[in-house]
Amino acid sequence: MEFDFSQLSKKERYKLLVSFVVPRPIALVTTTDRAGISNAGPMSFFNVFGDDPPILILGIQHRPDGRYKDTTRNIHDTGEFVVNLVNEHIAHPMITTSLDFPPEENEVSAAGLTLTPSRTLCTGRILEAPVAMECRKTESLEYPNRSVIVGEVLHMHVQDEYIDPQTLRVRPEAYHPLARLHADAYLLAQAQFELPRPSLEAFLASREREACEDTLSVDDGIN
After folding, report:
1. Model's pTM, two decimal places?
2. Buried b (16+ CB within 10 A) or exposed e, 76-98
3. Closest-CA residue to 151 (of 214, 59, 22, 18)
4. Residue 95 lies in domain
5. Are 38 and 111 in contact (CB under 8 A)?
């Protein structure tokens, strides 16, 4: 099937994109408004886009009437946010924070999570999150119904059980991040496997061996 996106409705485009661009990591974003009221909301239009500088990107849809969501408004007002990653232990609280609470309601408390101070920001991080990244907004792209926000990571918190302190490598047997598929479908990263990248020389040598084996097989079949 072929799809001309210029001929599709917003709902159709969304369904195709989020169904096939999977799995997507979930950013449970905490922010603070000008009055000091904390807010939290999950985003699956999110990923890391570089290490030098270390940048993350969030895609946050506006409300149906075009107004900013609390997360977007807070980031624009304060220039900071924290990306708290999600694993199986905080999956249900993450869903709770997605409810449409009024601005004065603290989603973190409502979800039974704990907000703890950050190192470099006024905005707090979620204590129960396996990983939290303190970010400063560097720029944003504004579309009629969405803001794309670029943030530089200033500080990172990782719970000890999920990282090898000597190598700084993740412990996959312990860290099972939650990822978004489509609709209400999610995925835990538990069934992992390694796929080493060969050198170009090894790849070319392997291809040459296979070509030789194919030639020998053809020759063996001739009477």
Report:
1. 0.90
2. eebebbbbbbbbeebeebbebbe
3. 59
4. 5-194
5. no
Dihedral angle over CA of 29, 34, 38, 39, nearest 10: -40
| Residue 214 maps to a domain | no
> Residues 88-114: pLDDT tens digits?
999 999 999 999 888 778 899 999 999
Closest CA to 58 of 102, 27, 13: 27
User: Does a structural domain hold residue 200?
Assistant: no
Residues in contact with 57: Cβ distance below 8 Å, sequence separation at least 6, in sequence order: 46, 47, 49, 148, 149, 150, 151
Residue 204 lies in a domain: no
Contact (CB, 8 A) for 82 and 120? no
Report pLDDT for 105: 80
87 DSSP 8-state letter:
B
Query: Across-strand partners of 133?
Result: 83, 156
Q: Please list the alpha-helical segments (H only) found in 100-199.
A: 107-110
CATH number reported for the structural domain that contains residue 163 in this entry: 2.30.110.10
Q: Token pair for residue 23?
A: 């799995």
* Long-range pairs, 17-25, Cβ under 8 A, ≥24: 18/44, 18/180, 18/182, 19/181, 19/182, 22/179, 22/180, 22/181, 22/182, 22/187, 23/179, 23/180, 23/181, 23/187, 23/189, 24/179, 24/180, 25/85, 25/177, 25/179, 25/180
For the cut 60, the answer to whether the pLDDT of residue 223 exceeds it is: no
